[in-house]
Design goal:
Radius of gyration: 32 Å
Strand content: 5-15%
Strand order of the largest sheet: 3-1-2-4
Distance between the termini: 92 Å
Number of strands: 4
Number of helices: 4
Number of domains: 2
Length: about 160
């Protein structure tokens, strides 16, 4: 009984098969079940899972004009997306240089609001900024206390006539 339950549970949570990749895209949003098209003999090319993922992302993004695509690694069970077949003459794997890799898969750059300061790169820089900020606040507070003390002294020395 326990072994049957474990086997059933494994089948429910097993990822999509190695010859099928689930690709999620944005701009416009869509999901694709991607696999290699069989050749004339009905055989699919033997390629690594990583190579297939890269080729799927690149081919889907190019063909359907998406702004960005990624492999859905958390997919449980079969992919419920539009079927996309990769032609036999598709690239065999990821590019060798960084420029090709950036062109193939676009990742949006983080947006930094213009009015926010950037985070300091080191703890030392953070401590310097904190010390400088604290020093400014202390000087500002000292000026206000000094002004209040002078005003109070003037008020007392004039017997409250210039308050």
């Amino acid at each position: 009984m326990g072994a049957a339950f474990a086997a059933t549970l494994w089948l429910c949570v097993a990822p999509a098969s190695a010859d099928n990749v689930c690709v999620s895209c944005d701009g416009p949003s869509a999901v694709y079940s991607c696999s290699y098209a069989p050749d004339a003999n009905g055989q699919t090319p033997a390629r690594s899972a990583r190579s297939m993922q890269f080729v799927c992302i690149q081919d889907v993004a190019r063909q359907y004009q998406h702004s960005s695509c990624s492999v859905n690694r958390n997919q449980l069970g079969p992919c419920n997306g539009q079927v996309h077949m990769i032609p036999q003459n598709a690239a065999a794997g990821p590019p060798t240089n960084a420029a090709d890799n950036e062109a193939a898969v676009q990742t949006p750059a983080p947006v930094v609001p213009p009015n926010k300061q950037r985070e300091p790169p080191t703890v030392v820089e953070m401590a310097k900024r904190t010390a400088a900020s604290t020093n400014k606040q202390i000087k500002k507070s000292a000026r206000k206390v000094s002004k209040a003390a002078k005003s109070t002294w003037r008020c007392v020395t004039t017997l409250f006539s210039k308050c």
